[in-house]
């Protein structure tokens, strides 16, 4: 089963360790605290307002129905990263999943987003998802780079599809990858991103 191997520890590039674990209802306060402490410029570019209790309740409901698989990274009891796999359980995109990932400012450039994204790719594979997409705004360069390094490629650009809080319109870039190919390529290329089970 997709989540049987969790919790799993990951050693980051600086030698520190975080634990990846599926989001539990009891973690919702810690998840909200994580999102509320993100740098404002990052938070405002996320698709949803992730700072409200309403958002957290709706998110947890979808976790319970397994429409969403949420993995959180924890260090010293705090959430320091989160990756979400979205899927539709019925209909013509039931073979497609979408990943989003966010990492706390203090934990960036240590490989955590790569580890979280790779873990979600593995979960998607186990769930039978065949294609994964990632939607990034044109100025989310770090996110784009993270997924391109995992083998995702630009599949579509939707011009002026996003309006930020200041009313500025930005292009939405859809990155995509075929799950079987990406997982095989990641396994062949490098084991560093893989969670160490335990
Ligand atoms: C995007 C984000 C998740 C990356 O997290 P991270 O843990 O720092 O990412 P990683 O350490 O795994 O970096 C992976 C690669 O992305 C690229 N990258 C990451 N941050 C970068 C930055 N600030 N500038 C340029 N490239 C960057 C690098 O190529 C990096 O590999 P390298 O360090 O070996 O060179 C993080 O910056 C974030 O939370 N941003 C705000 C939220 C967001 O944009 N989410 C995307 C929604 S899908």
Gap between N and C termini: 16 Å
Global shape? globular
SSE string, helices as H and strands as E: EEHHHEEEHEHEEHE
Largest sheet: 9 strands, mixed
CATH topology descriptor = Aminopeptidase
Structural class computed from helices and strand pairing: alpha+beta
Main sheet: strand order: 7-8-6-5-4-3-2-1-9
User: Strand share of the residues?
Assistant: 25-35%
Report the CATH C-level class.
Alpha Beta
CATH superfamily: Gcn5-related N-acetyltransferase (GNAT)
Radius of gyration: 16 Å
Description:
30% of the residues lie in helices and 33% in strands. Strand 3 and strand 4 (78-87) form a beta hairpin. With 198 residues, the chain is an alpha+beta fold. The longest helix is centred in the middle third of the chain and has 15 residues, at 112-126. The two termini are 16 Å apart. The chain has a single domain, classed as Gcn5-related N-acetyltransferase (GNAT) (Aminopeptidase), CATH 3.40.630. Bound molecules: coenzyme A. Residues 42, 100-103, 108-114, 134, 136, 140-143, 145-146, 149 line the site of coenzyme A (COA).
Summarize the structure.
The chain is an alpha+beta fold and 198 residues long.
Please write out the topology.
Blueprint (H helix, E strand, L loop, with lengths): L7 E4 L5 E6 L5 H9 L3 H4 L9 H12 L3 E8 L2 E10 L8 E8 L8 H15 L4 E7 L3 H9 L3 E11 L5 E10 H11 L6 E2 L1
Key terms:
nine-stranded mixed sheet; 30% helix; 198 residues; alpha+beta; Aminopeptidase; binds coenzyme A
């Amino acid at each position: 089963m997709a989540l049987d191997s969790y919790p799993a520890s990951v050693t980051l590039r600086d030698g520190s360790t975080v634990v990846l674990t599926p989001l539990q209802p009891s973690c919702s306060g810690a998840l909200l605290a994580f999102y509320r402490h993100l740098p404002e410029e990052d938070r405002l570019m996320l698709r949803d307002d992730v700072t409200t209790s309403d958002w957290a309740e709706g998110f947890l409901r979808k976790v319970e129905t397994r429409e969403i698989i949420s993995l959180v990274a924890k260090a010293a009891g705090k959430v320091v990263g989160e990756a979400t796999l979205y899927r539709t359980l019925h209909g013509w995109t039931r073979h497609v999943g979408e990943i989003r990932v966010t990492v706390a400012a203090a934990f960036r450039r240590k490989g955590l987003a790569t580890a979280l994204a790779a873990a979600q790719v593995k979960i998607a594979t186990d769930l039978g998802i065949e294609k994964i997409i990632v939607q990034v705004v044109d100025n989310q360069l770090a996110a784009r780079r993270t997924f391109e390094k995992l083998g995702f490629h630009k599949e579509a650009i939707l011009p002026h599809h996003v309006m930020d809080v200041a009313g500025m319109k930005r292009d939405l870039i859809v990155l995509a990858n075929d799950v079987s190919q990406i997982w095989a390529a990641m396994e062949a290329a490098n084991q560093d991103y893989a969670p160490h089970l335990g």
